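Board notes, transcribed. Complex of a protein with phosphoenolpyruvate.
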Amino acid sequence: MRGYLVAGNWKMNGYGAVNTKLTRSILEGWGAGATQVRLLICPPYPYLRELGQLLEGSSVALGAQNLSQHASGAYTGEVSAAMLKDVGCEFVIVGHSERRAMMGETSAVVADKFAAALGAGLRPILCVGETLAEREAKQTETVIDEQLSAVLKRTGVDAFSTAVIAYEPVWAIGTGRTASPQQAQDVHLHIRGRLKAHSSRIAERMQILYGGSVKGDNAGGLFAEPDIDGGLIGGASLKADDFLAIAAAAASSD
Ligand code: PEP
C-alpha cells in the first residue's frame, strides 16, 4: 500500500507570523492525522527551522522547495542539501516547472540536484510535466520520458526508492485549469510504466503525486484514480481550510 502524500508548496509567500499561524492551523486541523495519509509543508527557506520545530512530534513533515546541486563553496545565495537536512527537512522539491522555466534549470541540473538531495539523506520530490504547446503537439510522454531519463541515467533506479514523483502539467499550475482525473491517471500510469521497465518493485512502491490547481472540490476525483497517490498543492496550500479539505479528500480515499 503506497498511501497518500499531500504536499504544500508555499512558493515565495507569507512571512513570519502568517506562516506560524498557517502551520499551527494545519496542525490543529489535522490532529492525529489519518492512516495512510501524510501531510508535508514546504515553506520558504528562512522559516524552515522555526516551522520544523512546531512540527516536531506531529504527523506533518517538513520540506524545502529547492536546493543547490553543489555541496558547499562559493555559490552565493545557494543552499545545500546538508543545510536543509540540518534544519530538519525530510523532503525537497526538485525540478519544479517554475524553476525549469524561470531559472533555466535543465534536466541535467535537476538530475544533479536529485542526486545531491539523496546524498544528504533527503527525499527528493521530482517534478515532471509538459507545457500546453507540448500537450497539443502530443509530446506529453516524450517530454516526461526525457525529464525522467535524465535522472534515471544520473542516479540509477535504486536511487528512486526513497523519492517521490510529482506530475505537474505546466498548463494546470496556478491557472485554475486542472487535468481531468483520466488525463492525470493516463500520465501517472505512463510514469509508473517507465519505472517498471527498470524495477517493478520500485515502480509499485513509488508515490506519484498530481499537481496543478488541486482544490478541495476536485481532489477526491483525482485521488480515486489508482495511480494518483496524493497531490503537490500550490495556491490551495496557503489557506489551512483549503489544504485540510484536500487532506480530508485523501483520507476518505484511503
Ligand atoms: C505548484 O506550483 O506546484 C502547483 C501545483 O500550484 P497550484 O496548485 O497553485 O496550481
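The two ends are 10 Å apart (CA to CA). The mean pLDDT is 97.
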